Amino acid sequence: MEHPPVTDRSPLHDFLAPNAIAVVGASQDPTKRGYKAMLGLVTDGFAGAIYPINPKLEHVLGVRAYPDLASLPGQIDLALICTPAHTVPVLLRGCGKAGAKGAVILASGFAETGPAGAELEREVLAVARDAGVRVIGPNTSGIFNLHHRVNLLALENVRPGDIGIVSQSGNMLLSLALEAQQNGQVGFSTYVGPGNQTDIGFDDYLRYLGEDDKTRVATLYVEGFRDGRRFLDVARQVSAVKPVVVYKSGSTELGRQAASSHTGALAGSYAMTVDLLRQSGVSVVQYSDEILPVAEGLGLLQQARGKRVAILADGGGQATIASDRLAEAGLQLATLSDVTRQRLAEVLLPQASLANPVDVAGSSDATPSVLADCMAILADDDAVDSVFLVGMFGGYHLRFAEELLGDEMRGAETMIELDRRTDKPLVIYSLYAPVKPPALRRLHEAGLPVYHSIEHAVRVLAALGERGEYLQTTTSSEWATTVIPHPEQQTVLARAHQEKRDLLEPEAKALLGAHGIQVPNETVARHIDELGTIAREFGDRALAMKVVSKDILHKSDAGGVQLDLNGEPALREAYTRMLASCRAQVPEADIEGVLITPMARKGTEVIVGMIRDPIFGPVLMFGLGGIFVEVLEDVAFRAIPLSRQDARSMVSQIKAKKVFEGVRGAAAIDQEALVDLLMKVSSVVTAYPEIESLDLNPVMAYPSGYAVVDARIIVDRTVSVQSEGETA
């Protein structure tokens, strides 16, 4: 389903930055959430009105309490409901009358507990909509907006900053908060725990963070999307103006079970979700300990022009490790110009290595600031997109001589000045980062990210490069053209819908061919006596014969495929043998006839598939074809409609892409022809919503062009189909 573009202001601003808050179920018991929320508001100095609601108390933490929402002296923007699940519907009605635009429901006991809880959750949503109140949760850990001093979690020592967080795990938020404290420079803007997403989903929260001027990077921990297609639409818009970082749990079957108490087999996978997120400009992190480093790096540096990195190191071992990690992350070692190498030679000792990675080989032992000079030289090279300092900068005065501290501080100031005048990211790894020596503290305070892990630093560099390339390609990429459905093909689809069947292979290929997709010249024989004429039409070409039946899906298993047939006698013998086998294997099969086609030339087998995913809508798949596609799972996914850049990236993404370039003397295949095929399939799927799924497997890819050897199109029984001449 297509969604209209998001242009108006998110209504979440009305209550995620509130001026008046009611805490329903406020308490004096330090173990209760109603106490914690009051403590956070009072100690953080929330400047708006605070209304504790508890009929048994006169004051909570010195703030006057009220018996119910009806007795409040003024309107509220947000209500925090800390009471049990069964009390929520009545309280929401009171929230609406008190003027609340939003309510945070902490209680569990809803859809996650079973049918009765699901019914209560439906009631909550109905009441909320009737009352005009948007619901965060239920079953949520809560929210904070640190710039607005709204700390309903009462977290301590968490500083305001520019990282916005939405996390389905409260513990993950606590983990990030503790990690931020250890970092010392990272702060947060807004946090929301979406809970069951009964009303407000990830797309709504992302839209808010995209509009929030206090947020420079949106960071999400996701177990499951409510409306994945809508999220992709919003992510595409937000990622155009600020980075979006997502950690998606459920990367394994065990993980998917924990999160949720051919094409069809592969769709719905973690790999598919990651591909679709990246297609929308999202930076996806694979490991939970990468979330905060990547969010910080993107927040500070935003993007790189590309993926060419210059490594500057004071030790060969770590330079090698950094090079390995860069290659694994899909980054490249920049090729330094002769001018750059000459300038480096002028400031480094003769034994220094001037190739990339640049190893200063002791040049910095007595003068650590030379590293800053080298970084400036590398940043001036047009072939360099990012500069990566690797080694022990910041710790020279600890390792060698205390008097080196002054030179390290001068080097830090030079790096800070370089950062201000260049648009190229400067990323620093130091083995002394955990002890936070003065030079590294100065760099971090000035906005240069400092990491104590080469792997984290490389992941940041990769995210910067990916984002830069995404922003460059999305502004100029060509999108799949809109095609008009053919009346004849609509009639065929309507007939299949009426007969409650899928398209037969000849019908599927005819539909594809009608829109410019290359399919073989083939014919259908409905009686054995037609085989003589067909044999003469094809001459001495070797032919393939396949059974045509809506009841036989796996033709080979039923003996419904015969190959390398020459002449009428061979066709007649194969026809008799095939029908006998098929009727023995599937006695009730309705056999329309046999499809006869020239044997496909040997080529590289690929697969193109489409499925209408219940979360993300129509999704296209591409990979190596044949019988091993589900075993190897070396495939790429993109949401439809496709841009030409999407199609090209699908072809280049799969691990076996080197096969396309020709191996062991084989000719390279026509990759642009495959890109054209993917674009046309995208257009066809968009034009015919009646197509539920599609499998083209195999498609033979050649040095020039391709041929769709087998095609299967499944018709969506739930979509109303119009044939030619019908009116809506």
Report on this structure.
This protein is an alpha/beta fold and 728 residues long. The protein folds into five domains: 1-139, 3-Layer(aba) Sandwich (Rossmann fold); 141-302, Rossmann fold; 303-474, 3-Layer(aba) Sandwich (Rossmann fold); 521-598, Dna Ligase, domain 1, CATH 3.30.1490; 604-715, D-amino Acid Aminotransferase, Chain A, domain 1, CATH 3.30.470. The chain is 38% helix and 20% strand. It has 26 helices and 30 strands. The strands form six sheets. It has a seven-stranded mixed beta sheet with strand order 9-8-11-10-12-13-14, with helices on both faces. Strands 15, 16, 17, 18, 19 and 20 form a six-stranded parallel beta sheet that branches. Strands 25, 26, 27, 28, 29 and 30 form a six-stranded antiparallel beta sheet that branches. Helix 14 runs parallel beside helix 16 (405-421). The radius of gyration is 31 Å and the shape is flat. The two termini are 19 Å apart.
How does the SSE layout of this entry go?
Blueprint: H1 13-16, E1 20-24, H2 33-44, E2 49-53, E3 59-60, E4 63-64, E5 78-81, H3 88-97, E6 102-105, H4 115-131, E7 134-136, E8 143-145, E9 150-151, E10 160-167, H5 170-183, E11 188-192, H6 202-211, E12 217-222, H7 228-238, E13 244-248, H8 253-259, H9 263-266, H10 270-279, E14 283-284, H11 291-301, E15 308-313, H12 316-328, E16 332-333, H13 338-347, E17 358-359, H14 370-379, E18 386-391, H15 396-399, H16 405-421, E19 426-430, H17 438-445, E20 450-451, H18 454-474, H19 487-498, H20 505-514, E21 523-525, H21 531-538, E22 543-549, E23 561-565, H22 567-585, E24 591-598, E25 604-613, E26 617-624, H23 629-632, E27 635-639, H24 644-653, H25 657-660, H26 671-687, E28 691-701, E29 706-708, E30 711-715
Parallel strand pairs: 1-2, 1-5, 5-6, 6-7, 10-11, 10-12, 12-13, 13-14, 15-16, 15-17, 15-18, 18-19, 19-20
Antiparallel strand pairs: 3-4, 8-9, 8-11, 21-24, 22-23, 22-24, 25-26, 25-28, 26-27, 28-29, 28-30
